[in-house]
Amino acid sequence: MKLKGWKELEMGAVIPEAGNAAQYNTGSWRAFRPQWKEENCIQCLFCWIYCPDSSVTVSDGKRGDFDYEHCKGCGVCAHECPGKKGNKAIVMVEEGN
Amino acid sequence: MGKKLAITGNQAVAEAMKQINPDVCAAYPITPSTEIMQRFASFVSDGVVDTELVTVESEHSAMSACIGASAAGGRVMTATSSQGLALMWEMLHIAAGMRLPIAMALVNRALSAPINIHGDHSDGMGSRDCSWIQIYSENAQEAYDNIFQAVRIAEHEEIRLPAMVCMDGFIISHSIESMEFLPDEVVRDFIGEFKPTNPLLDVDKPVTYGPLVLPDYYIEFKKAQHEAIKRAKKVTLDVAKEFEKVSGRSYGLFESYRLDDAEIAIVVLNSAAGTAKDVVDAFRDKGIKVGLLKPRLFRPFPYEEVADALGSARVIGVFDRADSFGGFGPMYMEIASAMIASGSSPVMINRIYGLGGRDFMPEDAEAVIKELVEIADTGKATTLKEYIGVRE
Amino acid sequence: MSTPLRLKELSKKADLLTGGHRLCAGCGAPIAIRQVLLAAEVPLVASNATGCLEVSTTIYPYTAWKIPWIHTAFENAAATISGVEAMYKALKKKGRVDRKIKFIAFGGDGGTYDIGFQSLSGAMERRHDIVYICYDNGAYMNTGIQRSSATPLGANTTTCPAGSVIHGKQQPRKNLTKIMAAHNIPYAAQASPAHWRDLMTKVRKALDVDGPAFINILAPCNRGWRTPTHNAVELCRIAADTCFWPLYEYENGRLTINYKPKEKKPVTEFLKTQGRFKHLFSPDSQDLLKQAQENVDREWENLLREEACWREEAETKGEG
Known about the structure:
Chain A is built from 2 helices and 4 strands; from the N terminus they run E-H-E-E-H-E. By secondary structure, chain A is of the alpha+beta class. Chain A has one domain (26-94): Alpha-Beta Plaits (2-Layer Sandwich), CATH 3.30.70. The radius of gyration of chain A is 17 Å and the shape is elongated. By secondary structure, chain C is of the alpha/beta class. Chain C contains 12 helices and 8 strands. Classes of the chains: A alpha+beta, B alpha/beta, C alpha/beta. Chains B and C meet through strand 3, helix 3, helix 4 and strand 9 of B and strand 1, strand 2, helix 4 and helix 6 of C. Strand 9 (208-209) of chain B pairs parallel with strand 2 of chain C.
């Protein structure tokens, strides 16, 4: 983002673009990456409700893949995932592997 | 012509607020400004105004609520004094940094310790660097008139900064003077409708107020703020011109009293200026060319104009009803800056008077002017800064 | 018709706190705040005390908030939102605003229990129509884990470090939820993001009442609690199961305990999960451990007794 000059700024440091933090990438923080194993997913959506970074995409009530632009790899989703028959639908793998 | 009434300074301000009918007031009692909000509260209770009055639990919360209310998108006013302003100090900067046009009556009172409830300018001067527009008033009439003008200046779209109107505690706030009121409709037309910018209550256009701004942008916002408050000088004059049209009373950046050919000048703020003017007259009668400058707009300070007005003076005595301990009085520093920047080098002395409400008597002004006459003769000042009216 | 409190339905709602904020990985606060925002069915305007949530969600020129939001200072989220709410009332009265809007304030425990305590108490007493949400992580985490009055007994923080003579914080925590309930406000509750449905039900009740409401939400901080990044939710669950963080609510003064563990676990089950309590398990800290259990037991028993009184009274009146 090009830095603006003082005349171009919104008065009083107000940010008029609601939710523009979505443009900021926090995915690079990750040391571990959650992987979704759809075959073990029971669509409980616990991963979605417990995600601190709004990084579990859900459309029409069904989960999709992770938003890796923002996921910081904390692993809460994998830890909370009940999985199917003892098999987790989310597993954490080391980045770069 | 509006009606004439004998009234206290506090009542005059409360009356002005009633005529403005702000959307929200948040206030906390403190002597000597209490009466303003107390009277205003009865206007609320009697349905004379439709203001939401928030009777907060501290001045810090008063200013915080004013900030919230102003950012929400409406006209906001409050009043305080002394420790109240001191407790608000953190929030004064925030109101200004967020560019919120809150108007406040400051009834000047000394700061503790020792605790003292009487008038001096330590509170207002202490908030000098908060980026509030500061307008000082000699008497109830000026305080009343300045409130309307402060609202206009603060809300001006090129400024959007908070403004405080100052008057001396007790000396003005509690003394009865005859003054003239404006008719309600004249006030209404003069101040106009409040125009919100980025109101929080526009839920369809959500905005964020008060983000963390790091070194990459902070100084740009401060530069914008500096430019905005600088513009307040011109806007103050424009607003005063308009105000004169509706009131017949004229205001400037300061008042010049017999300064045109003055070789000796004194600078006196607020109520003490009234006393000092009589003394100036007495010296003039004796053929001594003395004049007085009574600052009105203290922030932004009109350096060039002040230097111009004091241009003919070879000797200047600056009275301060506040002290910057270990330095010169705050008004002296401004006048000195103005003179030096203009390239003139009068001899300037600083006299600290009236702290904690100590009376300022004609003899006090007289003694200082006599000293100035001596300095004019010898070209030398022995003591640059000194307290006057103090027992040894 | 409100959205049913089922995840499938709730997931169709827009997230009002976006990703891209810069809270630590695995922080409990955004989990709680997302749930609060998802529960709301009316437009919200929020104020936020200075703290982790505030700084990390609004680093200029970015904001993670999709609702109108204001941060002014540390000690005054309640006073600030009081002003916003007062302006809403004023403009509504004058016909310049017509929407139904609700007002919410967020603060960490430092900004709520300590420095913001006075302004919170004032706002509650003035009966503003606001909801104050405290996300309680038990210390000043934003400045680097200093003790607050919400820090649990025995915890190791940077200003009450576990030393060889003094073993962490020597005082029990302030019971803020009870203090808020003592303001006789229409709604006060304690919640945790692990129990998301309970939390969201509480938020809805808080938003529904006409007048002030307070909800205290446990929000684990892995930096301060010295825990891994993945178990914030699990820690909340253990906190409720040990009754370290009981889930209850006061509705117009009447207490209901919303979660009673089938088997109340010893508080050590909670304490042992966190590095900040590690020193308590050495032989010379046994007194503190004992005290910690006694404190939890006393609070829990008091809650049970108080709830029983209310139940009895209702039964006498024939309300069931």
